Amino acid sequence: MSPDTQRKDVQNDTTNGSTKDAVKTVGVADLLRGVVKMAPHASGMIKHAPGLIRRPPEAKKTIGSVFQKHAAAHPDRPFVRFEGRTTTYGEANRRVNRYAAVLSEAGVGKGDVVALLSKNNATDLLLMLATVKLGAIAGMLNYNQRGHVLEHSVGLLDAKVLVHDPDCAEAFESIPKSALPEHVYDFARFDAAAEGKPDSDPEITAQLPASTKAFYIFTSGTTGMPKASVMSHNRWLASLSGIGGLAVRLRHSDTMYVPLPLYHNNALSVSLSSVLASGACIAIGRSFSASKFWDDVILNRATAFCYIGELCRYLLAQPEKPTDRQHSVHTVVGNGMRPDIWDEFRERFGVDRVVEFYGASELNLAFVNAFTVDKTAGFCPLPYKIVEYDDEGNPKRNDDGRLTEVGKGGTGLLLAQISDRVPIDGYTDEEETEKKIVRDAFKKGDAYFNSGDLVRDQGFAHISFVDRLGDTFRWKGENVATTEVEGAVDSYDAVAQSVVYGVEVPGTDGRAGMVAIKLREGADLDPKRLAEHLYEELPSYAVPLFVRIVDDFERTSTFKNRKVELRKEGYAEADADGGQVYVLLGKEKGYVEYYEDYADEVAAAKVPKG
């Protein structure tokens, strides 16, 4: 399929309810309505506007200094709420400072890394703040990883200290002792070490420039193993000004509920920066539960929350109940809210504003729905291009060797311009960063960062997200690297070779994992044992939902498997093709033979379980 055909198909897609919704463009009237909604927040927006226009990297402003400034000015305001218990700014800052003293005694200073392996709780957040107050880097490990994948991530961090949550025992115990840093604490031991330590602000916090590195956030990327993307304080401050100050616009009396993992930028950067933009409160959900979501929102007195698209679908799939409207939420912020559920979600749950945004951990820009326009990922004032692409998802060069932009309403690959004004933090591995940079794109000497994402140009610097390209697809709010999954499948004894790709399932966001498998000669597939193997090797969100047995693979002239053709065939056609198809019921039941209602059950979040 040519790029032109692909764009036409996307633009005429009627799965979002109507062709009009699928090709929505933004007009002057949309912007004017947005300006009216901004009016009550004008003073706060004016305060944050300079931070979006100019953020000198040498400025002495960081996450830690912003946080402790609020603590000094309003020590009795609620800062973090967890399972109904509130900790004030003053109390939290004193605890953070004691934690920083422990880290400092362990030799942690500017540029060092502290690895944090934790599920969602207040301690994880305070440990992160203690780390960045010292000018050190918080390595936010993904607690879904296990074994050699987690060992690889720990190795990338090269941390001086690792602190782990007792609720992550299974993940922690899968790390070989040889891969651990010199100093390892669980929460209880760390809290004991912090007893009696000084609770004054570390002197270095006020001296740190905004260019200092703050977090390492893990992203699957396209290489098959996780990569650590870099988040500097300066980029986080851009989120504070652009997303928090100008778009989310919380008041200090608001509470932002965060059910997403703190190792994600949705929680750590977007949500926390929105809170600290105004000195509001952050309420941390231990984990997301569709059936108990609104109960937890009400318990934590939340007036806003962050989301990914799947979270919203799961909430809509729940039976209607009184708590759907017995909460105080007026604003939600996140990414992946599809046009087909946008109106239904707002109306059912009484949400006034949907602040959809688009961004990526490694990307040097973000789009945010500051004007509160329906069904858009929002606006970006920074330079970018949306260009034509080839079947492999790469930018397509014309006869002059340059790239070609798509027009308003068109769909293409998003590239972010790299410049002194908008530098790229990239990954910890410079070679991996360079692979994502497109040079001499429109003129000699220019440089753009390849997002790997397909977006639609809606006009007035607005876009809508369409799809993820290349060897990574997105499922359950996570990037899934096909080569990582292929490695796990290929290590199963009955498999000769596998090809992994994402397929669309109606009523869901992103793409579900599907694997085509060629069995070893004389081998039979035990579907239940295969599932057990994959759950041991992979995070649950990366275990493929569909398995197709094939005789062999068709390849390109450069010996690449034809994933495009496999993706087109999907799962239903594969059954008609003669190849046996299996579907995943969950950790306990494993794979079973494909049945007609399976896709509907996935969309309704009934399967897979575990």
Can you tell me about this structure?
With 610 residues, this protein is an alpha/beta fold. It is 33% helix and 23% strand. It has 21 helices and 27 strands. α5 (63-73) packs across α6, α5 packs across α7 and α6 packs across α10. The two termini are 36 Å apart. Residues 1-11 have a biased composition (Basic and acidic residues).
Detail the poorly predicted runs. 1-22, 556-561
Distance between the termini: 36 Å
Look at the helices and sheets and give the structural class: alpha/beta
Shape field: globular
- Report strand order across the widest sheet: 2-1-10-9-11-12-13-14
Task: Report strand %.
Answer: 15-25%
Mean pLDDT: 89
Task: Please tell me how large the radius of gyration is.
Answer: 24 Å
Q: How many β-strand runs? A: 27
Proportion of residues in helical segments: 25-40%
Q: Characterize the largest beta sheet: strand count, sense, and whether it forms a barrel.
A: 8 strands, mixed
**What is the tally of helical segments?**
21
Keywords: ATP-binding, Ligase, Nucleotide-binding
Biased composition (Basic and acidic residues): 1-11
EC number: 6.2.1.3
Protein name: Long-chain-acyl-CoA synthetase
In short:
One of its GO terms (molecular function) is ATP binding. It is globular and about 70 Å long. The chain is of the alpha/beta class.
